[in-house]
Write a structure and sequence with these properties.
single chain; alpha/beta; 7-stranded parallel sheet
């Protein structure tokens, strides 16, 4: 297939890493892949003029940032303007994939020669800082949806009457995230992602750790994130915090923990769950994103949302478990992660693209409530 991804600007976000991984894997499987990205929104002429009139000089254009698309083997096109992307910007293809709500609006307007239209949905982007009604309308555009978690498939069915979607969970890079079998840490150690956005639930995880530390003397915290420690989200004394760790270091941070906390209030998938599990670390998580499916077999503990007390109790349970009990949970976490390798998920994603092409040819892109949900991940149930 000739495959085109249409994305926002290239960056180091988790969502863009997923796109880059699919593009790379599809290229390796013999497909012709192109990724077209809109540029970072540059200052308009009006803004520049106002800045000059205020004596503030010209506004510098945003600098090029590192991204998951640096040094890749497939074709990348970064435009010199911020959208909309048009026919002139993308090659003719068999399928063209929108990857964000704005790009869905752009892809919907492309001509048929640019390919059957698919929409990769990694989150339900109904956020206060976005135009919610426009975001919602993209879910009704005539393009085949590929979602990354069952809860997003449920949104498509229940909110928009579209029962004909492909559910393709994210994969894990087992060459990057791995660890040898081990026992519990000599000093009980808990890990977590540190992030400022409220919906990431960092405050819940920190509160849970604090409560658990009252019952487990010497409990240690390991964390990493992109921002420096913040005054309103203070880290406990003695915590090990690594800001922007090199990618090769992340697996070691996961592997030095007895459990990893996932406190998100709202999440598309929750890739750190899989990353920690691949490093043989059980996860204590809220039921956000794909956590209910990922933790269902016992590779961790699911706790109620907005409940640091319940999360603290789970921390105590894991840390006070016997060596054999912890080892069984660690083994189950690793076994679960190994079901979500990039080889498996790329096959499912490729099948979803064929479905998009087939549906386009058969003119069946309108939601059909009587149809059965296509959940391609069910093949893993056996």
């Amino acid at each position: 297939m000739r495959i085109t991804f249409v994305t926002p600007e290239f960056n180091l976000s988790g969502g863009m890493r997923i796109i880059a991984m699919y593009a790379n894997r599809l290229q390796q499987r013999g497909h012709q892949v192109t990724v077209v990205a809109a540029a970072i929104n540059k200052p308009s002429l009006v803004r520049q003029t106002k800045s000059l009139l205020k004596g503030q000089g010209l506004i510098s254009p945003p600098a090029k940032q590192p991204s998951h698309f640096d040094g890749v083997e497939f074709e990348c096109r970064s435009l010199d303007r911020f959208g909309p992307i048009t026919d002139a910007d993308v090659p003719d293809a068999d399928v063209v994939i929108a990857t964000w709500w704005e790009t869905a609006e752009w892809v919907a307007r492309l001509s048929k020669s640019k390919g059957a239209k698919a929409y990769l949905i990694q989150h339900y982007e109904i956020f206060d800082y976005l135009p919610k009604e426009r975001v919602k309308r993209t879910w009704s555009l005539p393009m085949h949806k590929i979602v990354i978690a069952q809860w997003l498939a449920d949104v498509a069915a229940q909110e928009y009457g579209d029962f004909h979607v492909s559910c393709v969970p994210n994969g894990i890079d087992t060459q990057q995230f791995h660890a040898i079998p081990r026992g519990k840490q000599a000093t009980p150690t808990i890990g977590m992602m540190y992030a400022e956005p409220y919906w990431k639930g960092c405050d819940i995880s920190l509160k849970a750790f604090s409560l658990a530390a009252e019952k487990i003397p010497g409990l240690r915290l390991v964390a990493f994130g992109h921002c420096p420690p913040l005054a309103h989200l203070p880290l406990p004394a003695g915590a090990e915090y690594v800001q922007c760790p090199p990618q090769k270091m992340v697996k070691d941070l996961y592997a030095k923990c007895d459990a990893w906390l996932f406190g998100s209030r709202f999440e598309g998938f929750g890739l750190p769950i899989l990353e920690a599990m691949a490093c043989r670390t059980p996860v204590i998580g809220t039921p956000a994103g794909a956590a209910p499916e990922l933790l269902a077999k016992g590779g961790g503990l699911l706790v109620p949302p907005e409940d640091p007390e319940a999360m603290a109790a789970a921390i105590v349970k894991v840390c006070q478990s016997s060596e054999a009990e912890w080892q069984a949970m660690s083994d189950e976490a690793h076994a679960t992660a190994m079901q979500y390798t990039w080889g498996e998920t790329t096959e499912l994603f490729e099948a979803a693209l064929h479905t998009a092409i087939q549906r386009s040819h058969e003119f069946r892109l309108r939601p059909q409530p009587q149809r059965k949900l296509i959940n391609l991940s069910l093949r893993w149930a056996s």
